[in-house]
Write a structure and sequence with these properties.
The protein is of the alpha+beta class and 469 residues long. It has 15 helices and 22 strands.
Length: 469
């Protein structure tokens, strides 16, 4: 392989930028890295904006501090690598609520994404099915099997636990429904213990015991000044050439690597690279793979996505409860599926003038028609529904912002990880210098995307002949 290497990264979200950082750290000196971003903005769903003179997240709000094994998450490790570890801040109010039956009830403790490890603790919100979670003498999940979260929990604990606890928790993360989402992909720790435990409560307890959290240790973190700082620092540390408004329209194998067709169809540019990281959502990735690996393209392209909108209101001195926010079960019939009281949850955002920033997430999978209204209508609906849930009229907002994320959240049906593994194996066998990375394959959340990008970079380094480290 010629030196220096030329690596193209298609997609300038946090996944692609994490891949660039890992390549810069591990690939031989002089490696040329180019990031191609179709839009004008880096960071993907990480976007810090401003409302009423204050920074506020218009995309992802925070990241998990720990990985599933109990160590620091990939997001924390990246922040440390970028010199931002001391800028991590944590919620000052952690208690959230569920909007159930016309009122707010605290989310019970001791659950794993809403699945209870102690049935007595959830009775204020949902009544578990009596005696349903019996020990049948065999594990809940067979080796290699996958089921929807809803199917497993309904069969063991009944409908209320799913509808009032698990579904809103998953909906807040994936904008999807528990009855459709893969257990193995969305709740891997529970899936692992379900292969050995005979009851669901036992599987939850085993999963919690496998990754114990020190008392008082924070679960979530963000960066003072906003998550766009992570994006900017990663772009700098990766040392890549950043090509904005540069849509990659075609990938063609060559004798020595790849040819990328970049730019508008009327005036395309051809670029040569030794290796490519595809760090874009599944459907654009599938279009690029169609002529190279049609079976992998069909597998990848079948992944569906949900669209959401994030509506942020700046409210003058509202009477808000001492909560970080609340989740709304779909059975409540509201457009809002979650709300965060930013200036309550994050102490560093609190303002002396009492102005509060409140964000609501709207849009569930399969209900995209509910988003086909104007921004003003969304703001009015969110304001009205917030007032209803809080049982008090909120003051009129002094400013508002609507951020629409079309096709933003992957919907992982059972068997997703096996399908992705098969697609990657086929690509690796035929085209080892082409790697897939991102939320469409490995899961949502900043740590997962960072790890996915770094793993893709390592695969490229191996395929090209090793590293400098």
């Amino acid at each position: 392989m010629r030196q220096p290497w030329r690596v193209a990264i298609v997609g300038g979200g946090i996944t692609g930028l994490a891949a660039a950082v890992r390549l810069r750290d591990r690939a031989p000196a002089g490696t040329e890295i180019t990031v191609y971003e179709q839009s004008g903005a880096l960071g993907g769903k990480l976007r810090t904006g401003e409302l009423a003179g204050q920074p506020v997240e218009f995309g992802a709000e925070s990241f998990l501090m720990r990985d599933p094994a109990g160590g620091e998450s990939a997001a924390v490790a990246l922040a440390r690598r970028l010199g931002l570890a001391d800028e991590i801040v944590h919620p000052t109010v952690g208690q959230a609520a569920l909007a159930v039956g016309g009122g707010l009830r605290p989310i019970p403790g001791g659950t794993l994404v809403g699945v209870p490890g102690d049935l007595a603790k959830v009775t204020t919100v949902a009544q578990p099915a009596a005696d349903a979670d019996r020990d049948t003498g065999r594990p809940l999940l067979a080796p290699g099997a996958d089921v929807s979260v809803g199917a497993l929990v309904r069969s063991r604990l009944g409908d209320q636990v799913v509808d009032r606890l698990v579904d809103p928790m998953l909906g807040g993360v994936y904008a999807g429904r528990a009855d459709d989402l893969s257990l193995v992909t969305t709740m891997p720790a529970l899936a692992r213990t379900a292969r050995t435990e005979h009851t669901l409560v036992g599987a939850v307890r085993a999963a919690q015991a496998a990754a114990p959290r020190a008392p008082g240790a924070p679960v979530f973190g963000t960066l003072a000044g906003g998550l766009s700082r992570l994006v900017e620092a990663a772009a700098t540390a990766g040392g890549a050439t950043i090509r904005r408004y540069a849509a990659v329209r075609e990938l063609t194998p060559t004798a020595t690597g790849w040819r990328l067709t970049v730019g508008p169809t009327r005036d395309p540019e051809s670029v040569e690279a030794d290796a490519v990281v595809l760090a874009v959502p599944a459907r654009p990735a599938a279009r690029l793979l169609a002529g190279i690996a049609p079976e992998a393209a069909a597998t990848v392209g079948a992944l569906d996505y949900a669209s959401v909108a994030l509506v942020t209101l700046a409210l003058p001195e509202p009477a808000l409860p001492a909560l970080s926010g609340f989740l709304v079960p779909a059975t409540e019939g509201l457009l809002i599926k979650a709300s965060t009281f930013f200036t309550t949850k994050w102490g560093h955002l609190a303002r002396p003038d009492g102005l509060a920033l409140v964000r609501a997430s709207v849009g569930r999978y399969g209900e995209e028609a509910s988003l086909q209204v104007t921004d003003a209508d969304l703001v009015d609906t969110v304001h009205r529904e917030l007032s209803t849930v809080l049982a008090a009229p909120l003051p009129a907002p002094v400013a508002s912002h609507v951020q629409r994320w079309g096709g933003a959240l992957p919907q992982y049906t059972p068997g997703h990880l096996d399908r992705v593994a098969a697609a990657r194996a086929a690509l690796r066998g035929a085209h080892p210098t082409l790697a897939l990375a991102g939320a469409g394959y490995d899961g949502v959340g900043i740590p997962v995307c960072v790890r996915s990008g770094a793993t893709a970079a390592e695969e490229i380094i191996t395929a090209l002949g090793g590293s400098a480290a």
